[in-house]
Design brief:
Blueprint: E1 16-20, H1 27-33, H2 35-41, E2 46-50, E3 54-56, H3 63-66, E4 72-74, H4 87-107, E5 114-120, H5 122-144, E6 162-166, E7 173-174, E8 186-187, E9 211-216, H6 222-232, E10 238-243, H7 253-269
Helix pairs in contact: 2-7
Amino acid sequence: MPSIPSTIPDSKSLPRILCLHGGGVNATIFETQSRSLIRHLQHSFRLVWADGPFLCDPHSDIISVYGSYAPFRRWLRWLPEHTDIGAESCIEELGYAMKTAMEDDDREGGTGEWVGLMGFSQGAKLSASLLLEQQAREDKAQREGTQVETDLIGIPDINWRFGILLAGRAPLSNLNPTIMKSKALVSAANISEGFQFCDSVNDDVILRKPTLHVHGMADAGLHLHRKLLADYCEDGTTTLVEWEGAHRIPIKSKDVDPVIDAIYDLAEGSGVAVTRTV
């Protein structure tokens, strides 16, 4: 049976996953919360932890443990007091924050291909939205017989192959309103809470990129996680792992191992070699 190797490899040349935290936390907290996932994934991937561009108050769920880990950040608005700077400016700030983390990792010696996105909560929504934005640009290029345009991050030739969505909610955010016009997407400037869902999602904004969905059965947002999976992702492109937990990242082996196994399947299905540890 596979097991976790005793030696941690030099990760500089490993394929890279960009990790996007939830709202009201930050990259350091997300990395700490993901420690049980990291024990496995660090043998196959270089994990890069990005900080959201906007400062905010800490999420109420993390104050007791991580209250001293300020500053706290967000990617998108979820409360009325979060300043509305407009969709264009928001998208620009999102891209700049992710580009900064990716270029910082280049300077730190990372050379592996950027292959995947992993996000929790708001970071999972953003990860899926980034995959959809890439898909929209690819579809446009195919229709017009042109090259695929560079994305909001602004680094040429990035090809996200898969997304690991930990407690990701519908609706997806529109990160390229020039191409995508669907009312099934929420503007990057707007709050998702209270969003008026369409009866059906347009085919052109249904995500076809491979995604893993990790749902906690005691999560208060479970119905929205299920809606993301069922309504916004194409049948046959998704994998679902359910576990008996609330709105947090699995820590115990009995909960973590099925997630890790599914990540390995997802990566290998996308042409990325892994070192299996479960």
